[in-house]
Amino acid sequence: xxxxxxxxxxxxxxxxxxxxxxxxxxxxxxxxxxxxxxxxxxxxxxxxxxxxxxxxxxxxxxxxxxxxxxxxxxxxxxxxxxxxxxxxxxxxxxxxxxxxxxxxxxxxxxxxxxxxxxxxxxxxxxxxxxxxxxxxxxxxxxxxxxxxxxxxxxxxxxxxxxxxxxxxxxxxxxxxxxxxxxxxxxxxxxxxxxxxxxxxxxxxxxxxxxxxxxxxxxxxxxxxxxxxxxxxxxxxxxxxxxxxxxxxxxxxxxxxxxxxxxxxxxxxxxxxxxxxxx
Length: 278
Prior knowledge:
Distance between the termini: 26 Å
Strand content: 25-35%
Number of helices: 7
Mean pLDDT: 89
Strand order of the largest sheet: 5-6-2-12-13
Oligomer: single chain
Structural class: alpha+beta
């Protein structure tokens, strides 16, 4: 399983369209503990009326902070790629509720796509161009919780592989499948309209994960590429990408919206998928 861990220091940098342009993806990560109250208060000014209303509906402080930082990250990161101020971005959901850049603004950055995920303590945002893109990040939990969930939500082969392990390895296998599944359905933009047992991953080898589909979820496995990472000791991340490029550059960056606090964590390359252009 190709799953690296971030725990070292890195250089400070600025990132824009030249870094994650055609053929490239940037994954921005925000540690919620790194966002102080002054910064969080400034993020409220970036929200549109609908976002402010939704923010106020959250009653649990942790969920409020995840949502607020997530929206601030989307807005500030997108502004690196198009001449639109963070507070001016507008979004429209598709029929399944996934947001995309409003059509009039999308013309300012043709092909720009993004996907957001947040969990306790961490927010992740993937940005790319002219591709299907999904990211998921999860907080790891205890072994007793994941054993039953594997049988409930996974394909039979996935559940069997996860349950063949015990202790920490069971947890790792569970979150490998869980984050990969979430990343794929988010990349498709259809959410849980896709059956979670209609596709299955193979993570047993040393290479990147591979995917197979049943008739309940028809798709071409050759067009997909996947990447997994450990984010510290508490979080797991998966990225799902379908793009025509032969190779896809991926850049991981730890950042804090509206600050100069930014570190490059890693540069990786996703190899060509079956059927990709040479």
